[in-house]
Amino acid sequence: MAKEEQKRPQARYAPGELKKIRENLGNITPEEAKALTKKLGGEIGIEKSDSAHGGMIQRGSIMPVKKKDTQQPKDAAPGLSASDSKPGPVSSVSSLYSLPKIDQAERIKMDILMLSRNYRIKLNFGFLNRFILRAKKQSDIVLMSFVRVTLADIITNMESLAKDCLELQKKMPESYKKKILEAKDIKQKIIKFISDWKFEFIREKHEALKNSAIPVTTTMLVPLIRELYKMLMPFYFLGEQRGADTIRNLLIDLAAYPDIDKNTIPNLIRKIAKGWIFLFQNAIPRMYPLLMRMCSYQFYEYPEFFTREIAHILNFLGITKYNLILPQKHAETVNKDNQQSSPESQEPSLDMMEASQADETTEAEQKKQQQHTKLVDTGLKLLDQLFPEAGWLHLSSHPDFYPYFQSIFGCSDGFALLAPENPVQKIIVLLYILEDLFRGCRSIRFDENIDAELKIQMPGEDSFTSTLEEWRVYKDTLFDKYYSPDLRDLVERLYSRIEFIHSPLGKKLISNLIWQTKYFFLPHLNFITLAKPQYEFNYRPLCLRVSFLQNVFASLVEKIDIAVKNRGVVPGIRNPWDNFIFDIPSTISRRIDALAFAQRRSLLSTNASIIKYTASVLSVLDWLLNDLSSPSYLNENVTIYRSAGGIAPIFPPPVRDDVNALFQQRIKQIEQRHKNPES
Q1: Who's near 130: CB < 8 A, 6+ residues apart?
Q2: What is the largest CA-CA distance in the chain?
Q3: Which single residue of 110, 163, 355, 678 has CA 20 to 30 Å from 453?
Q4: d(CA 236, CA 432)
Q5: Would you state the torsion angle of the CA atoms of residues 638, 640, 646, 649, taken in this order, to the nearest 10 degrees?
Q6: pLDDT tens digits, residue range 297-328?
Q7: Residue 384's Cα: distance from chain center in Å?
Q8: How far apart are CA 325 and CA 238, in angstroms?
Q9: Mean pLDDT, rounded, for 70-89
């Protein structure tokens, strides 16, 4: 017994010290441990007693744990303990939380997403990323700027939205307040749900993280992110456009009450709709990489993650599908009695019907083609007005858009590497422009039956609303996350070694980029057959959706032209003659405002004008994507990256600093022509 006590190591180390050493060393073999002991020396011992637990922690620092406490329930979210899967606040920032144990490849994908310029959640170490991301502990640290700036902005805007909803309820008539409490309608549910948001727990956790003396990690963010998404997730499936329109429809309900405050209530409803848009443009997408790391075993792009992993998300948040507010499905009814013809009417012969239909089809196609050509010309002239000297009127000469538009839109890194001869350069710029124009379309109240009409034009589970909501995917995902990384990889390797172009990897990168150009953007591109890469992308091709939207907006333009003289009713649009509103001012909105003011034409400031602008720009993009006679398909050889006519890549030219001065000069010219029409 005495011998055993002598052999037993002394308690030399503080509680928890050995555990920290083991975590820092990682997994090592017994041989490696012996080698380290010889090199570093040291004394064998165990940890001292831990007074906090009232006894000796023997054999290192492991406390005995009952087996039943370590088992996860079957319905628990991945990476969470049984106690942690229950909803509600917790007392510690990090003690009760752990992340799902996932494959290293999936974890690295999520980490790369978090350090990208689109999110900036984690610190980007440049070429050292490949080493640091493999060190799990280091890669888990979150930038304090994300905690102190991005999260603070999201929380502040959400609080402001909740206050506006509460203020709106106070201003409502008593009878309508009762409807809000009952919340039978979606718009009433939205106001009630947001008004009930509580921020005490969120503020407490955020303050603790901002003032943390140790680096903030993803694990420490779990309680905060969970509470924020517990607020956001219930109405996620309403979508940005549909939800904002639903909120604006409150004004129609409240207009029936003569005694309402007609100055305050419309402003509050506009603020709430703007706050709703902020949630879908900033709050939900900016935090999604963190939510994915906290509850998913696999990497998914945004917004695919929210549909593919909905079960894990709900489990993690501690809510069920019954907490979700889903869009109502309006049944389509047809009055068959009105469609029946009179029995006395003569039925035309089959030959006459076929001949008549053939003539009508030919005339309709010719008329449609003429209108499309006219819209393309109008679109190019409009773009030249908005962006003078950019080169819109001579696209066939392949003007370089990078120096002009980089300062305006702040495009991603890959944009600088695109060759001016690469049609993708022009397509990306048009995607940015249309994204801004679609923001202006949010103030337009489209008729409720428009979705049913559009589903007939575009087969499958798609609609006008979903097409607008998913528009950013084609720029943020197709280009920024697929096309751009391959392009950067190729150009960086060619800078250091020109022979790389002839290597197997070099040929593979070139092949991938050419296929992506065809698969993502230019469907009619022809080239020598190359090995086709596989992409798992569940969105409709851009060329189809652009053609779909162009047809819709062109149809609306026809209806506007008929009604414009008397500012009459436009089928499909409830407020065509209201002044347009951009919830978030942008380069496009400011320049359109300036053009309207310079020409002294009030019609240019209406929703109808935004539809016309959008239709004409869509026609230009549709022409570049789908027309074989467009400049996109003039070159036989596919030029991908910027070079001096050879294989070696070249650096992009400097960004222009005169683009705003050029536009101001154009505005002065328009004003001068308006004052002196004969000059």
Answers
A1: none
A2: 119
A3: 355
A4: 24
A5: 180
A6: 999 888 889 988 998 999 899 888 888 888 76
A7: 28
A8: 7
A9: 39
The string of DSSP letters for 132-153 reads: HTTSHHHHTBPPHHIIIIIHHH
In the structure encoding, which two tokens stand for residue 107, read together?
């974890």
Contact at 8 Å (CB) between 168 and 151?
no
* Sign of the torsion formed by the C-alpha atoms of 373, 376, 380 and 386: positive
**pLDDT, averaged across the chain:** 76
Which residues, 6 or more positions from 477, have their beta carbon under 8 angstroms from its beta carbon? 301, 302, 537, 539
Task: Name every residue whose Cβ is closer than 8 Å to that of residue 99 and which is 6 or more positions away in sequence.
Answer: 79, 218, 219, 222, 293, 294
Start-to-end Cα distance in the chain: 114
Q: Residues 276-307, buried b or exposed e (16+ Cβ, 10 A)? A: bbbbbeebbbbbbbbbbbbbbeebbbbbebbe
- pTM, two decimals, is 0.53
Q: Does residue 504 contact residue 278 with C-beta atoms inside 8 Å? A: no
Which residues pair with residue 269 across a beta bridge? none
Reported as a single tens digit per residue, the pLDDT across 199-216 is 999 999 999 999 998 989
Q: Are 487 and 418 in contact (CB under 8 A)?
A: yes
SS3 per-residue string spanning 172-197: CCHHHHHHHHHCCCHHHHHHHHHHCC
Query: Which of 289 and 596 is assigned the larger pLDDT?
Result: 289
Q: Inform me whether the pLDDT recorded for 54 exceeds 70.
A: no
Kindly give the pairing relationship between strand 45-47 and strand 10-13.
parallel
Q: CA 140 to CA 107: how far, in whole Å?
A: 10
For residue 621, give Cα distances in angstroms to 420, 544, 546, 589. 16, 11, 7, 19
Confidence (pLDDT) at 222: 94
Where do runs of H (alpha helix) occur along 12-150?
Answer: 17-25, 30-40, 104-115, 129-132, 136-139, 144-145
Other beta carbons within 10 angstroms of residue 597's beta carbon come to: 14
Contact predicate 427/631, CB 8 Å = no
Is there a cis peptide before residue 258, judged by omega within 30 degrees of 0?
no
- How far is residue 29's CA from residue 23's CA, in Å, rounded to a whole number? 14
Return d(Cα 277, Cα 275) in angstroms, integer.
5
Residue 85: pLDDT above 70?
no
What the block records as the tokens of 286 is 């900016």
CA distances from 16 to 34, 36, 429 (A): 22, 21, 56
Greater pLDDT, 184 or 449? 184
Helix, coil or strand: residue 433: helix
